[in-house]
Amino acid sequence: MAKKHLGQNFLFDPSILHRIIEVSGITSGDTVVEIGPGHGSLTALLAKVAKKVVAVELDVELYEKLKEDSRFPDNVEFVHSDALKFPYEKLEQFKVVANIPYYITTPIIFRLIEAKNSLKSMTLTIQKEVARRIVAKPHTKEYGVLTVAIQYYAEPKLEFIIPRGAFRPVPKVDSAVIRMDMIESPRVKVTEEKLFFRIVKTAFSQRRKTLANALKPVSKDIKELLMLSGIDPTRRAETLSIEEFAALTNRLSKNKSSG
Description:
- By secondary structure, the chain is α/β, with parallel strands linked by helices.
- The chain folds into 2 domains: 4-182, Rossmann fold (3-Layer(aba) Sandwich); 193-258, Helicase, Ruva Protein, domain 3, CATH 1.10.8.
- It has helices at 14-24, 41-49, 60-68, 105-113, 128-134, 145-153, 193-205, 211-214, 222-228, 242-258; strands spanning 10-11, 31-35, 52-57, 76-80, 94-99, 119-127, 154-162, 167-168, 175-182.
- The strands form 2 sheets. The chain has a 7-stranded mixed sheet with strand order 4-3-2-5-6-9-7, sandwiched between helices.
- Helix 1 (14-24) packs across helix 2 and helix 9 packs across helix 10.
């Protein structure tokens, strides 16, 4: 029985599970973290291809059942833990393959990114709309803070859509499998990372406004700084590339240090 408060929707279709493993690029040398193994359908398949599987389950009843299940070989380790608090940094190089509860999708992704020194990739089954936001391009309504924040650290690719009917219980929305490969260093060079994300969040917080108006809280000289960065102040946040956000950040940082 799925527990609604834990956002449990279980995926059993073998063809979809095999496809998830295929697009994840898991090999026999990989350590894999699975978040929310549920009844272990994906776990059992991962164990056949990976060197080691660390399956993190919050539901104590499911955890106890999985731990006693004879299906799983010795290379599977079940851990009863909250995935948001799990110490991923202590693991060797690892990849993540998981069906993420919708309500914690964004926090989980950013918690995993915190372990970027060890994390190689994430292949996640998430809400279709969220996946589209992650892979979005400028000049689209999906493009926003989540897009820029994830593409700063990773190369995302929407692999395929899973219809809601494939899950039990059936959720209200369709899902998508997205793979995010971590990049060795951030996509753009910024002198102040905190300032970069502050600019991005402030710009998108009032996305209908021009950048000259939306970014006034960041600097009183924002109009001039935008022009010095080669950005028309009448543009809106969703038209800026990550490179342009970085150029503006570096210009603002330079202005602060010389002011």
